[in-house]
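queue> pop job 88
queue> type: inverse folding (structure -> sequence)
queue> payload:
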């Protein structure tokens, strides 16, 4: 149950209806009568031992049910109730996790079995395909085509638009993440905790085990924030007192994820003061980009507007002694902002469906290349970093003389800034976007 006391019950029934309609169309286009969706196989932590990671269910499976148990199969056949073949072998070693909301069960025909032989009795023998993990195909589903491309593409496309149930789950995932963010921000402001302590604090505050978080918490003090995915946490408690913190950490609810970043600064002095000014400007830029994310605008155009805004900041703060137009035309924003503005969000932190052009270094790793439309949920996460390797290249390049190097060196002590919110495009007049993060976290 979410914090507002609501179960997603009513929304869930409507969600299943929407899915059933979408799947009927996708199956017809693929020339199939039914699809079997396997939940997944636990992945070993190491070839050398027999311990496993907790299951991350196949997203197509998780979209139908919050059940996160291995070796279950859904059978979706247009016109019939969805069927769940639930393999529950007796084990003296482990118990699988139960979903935190079980109202979903009433919507399925459920066959509980203890072995694969029995499970096979409930599966279609022909006219079906299997959706499942490619790296560990389920042996008891062998003999049916696995992940036919046409079907996978159609199912990915269905995930671009979130149902009200999914938005409800994403809102709750944001509320949960905010609890952890607030606790960590407070600990940073009032003490000198090491990165590992802040990481553990986030887990405790959000009641998540480390492998359960949607992605590895990024907790970066001082210059570590220049590493975009800093997950090798510093452990020294009595080390130097850092004045900046970048935290990029999310939470999950019924399989749906939040992806939230904040940057903080404390202390005073030339470095902290300059960084605080930079932070204020990036914050204003991020909020402005959120307001511009309206239906009809290609997301890559918003990404380019972010570059123009980064150029204005670099120019106005005197980090680069040139006009904003010159900063853009010389490609210098990419020294300081080397990643995409955002990505689709849902059952995966980097969700499928919105990336028509696969991300590469040449595309700034931009993972959302669609046109903004109602029903989409994506992140908006501009950043501005002082990355040693990029600064070295700048120093050795033709524009070195235009850089205020003493200012850059002061700011580099703070690593960098990223601010990330999760955005739901409503398309509603007067309020075309809903920021899922800000109600919980300023
Ligand atoms: N937390 C990973 C990302 O923001 O894309
Ligand atoms: Mn993100
Ligand atoms: Mn993030």
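queue> result:
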């Amino acid at each position: 149950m979410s914090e507002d006391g609501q179960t997603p019950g009513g929304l869930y029934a409507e969600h299943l209806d929407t899915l059933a309609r979408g799947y009927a169309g996708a199956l017809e286009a693929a020339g199939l009568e039914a699809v079997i969706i396997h939940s997944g196989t636990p992945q070993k932590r190491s070839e050398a031992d027999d311990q496993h990671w907790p299951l991350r269910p196949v997203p197509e499976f998780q979209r139908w049910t919050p059940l996160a148990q291995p070796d279950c199969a859904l059978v979706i056949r247009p016109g019939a109730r969805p069927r769940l073949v639930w393999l529950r072998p007796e084990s003296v070693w482990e118990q699988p996790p139960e979903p935190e909301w079980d109202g979903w069960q009433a919507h399925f025909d459920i066959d509980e079995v203890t072995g694969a032989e029995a499970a096979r009795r409930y599966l279609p023998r022909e006219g079906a395909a299997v959706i499942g993990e490619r790296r560990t195909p389920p042996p008891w589903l062998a003999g049916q085509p696995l992940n036919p491309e046409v079907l996978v593409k159609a199912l990915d496309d269905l995930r671009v638009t979130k149902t009200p149930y999914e938005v409800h789950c994403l809102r709750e995932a944001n509320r949960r993440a905010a609890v952890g963010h607030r606790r960590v921000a407070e600990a940073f402001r009032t003490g000198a905790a090491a990165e590992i302590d802040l990481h553990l604090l986030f887990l405790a505050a959000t009641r998540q085990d480390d492998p359960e978080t949607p992605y590895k918490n990024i907790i970066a003090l001082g210059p570590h924030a220049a590493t975009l995915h800093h997950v090798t946490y510093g452990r020294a408690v009595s080390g130097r007192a850092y004045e900046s913190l970048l935290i990029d950490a999310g939470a999950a609810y019924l399989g749906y994820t939040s992806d939230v970043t904040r940057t903080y600064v404390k202390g005073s002095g030339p470095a902290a003061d300059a960084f605080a000014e930079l932070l204020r400007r990036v914050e204003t830029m991020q909020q402005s980009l959120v307001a511009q994310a309206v239906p009809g605008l290609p997301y890559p155009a918003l990404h380019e507007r972010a570059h123009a805004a980064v150029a204005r900041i670099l120019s106005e703060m005197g980090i680069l002694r040139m006009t904003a137009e010159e900063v853009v035309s010389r490609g210098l924003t990419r020294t300081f902002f080397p990643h995409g503005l955002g990505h689709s969000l849902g059952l995966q932190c980097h969700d499928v469906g919105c990336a028509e052009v696969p991300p590469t270094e040449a595309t700034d790793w931009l993972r959302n290349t669609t046109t903004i439309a109602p029903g989409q949920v994506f992140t908006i996460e501009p950043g501005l970093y002082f990355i040693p390797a990029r600064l070295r290249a700048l120093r050795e390049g033709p524009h070195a003389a235009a850089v205020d190097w003493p200012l850059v060196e002061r700011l580099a002590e703070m690593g960098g800034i990223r601010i990330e919110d999760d955005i739901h495009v409503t398309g509603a007049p007067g309020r075309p976007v809903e920021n899922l993060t800000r109600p919980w976290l300023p």
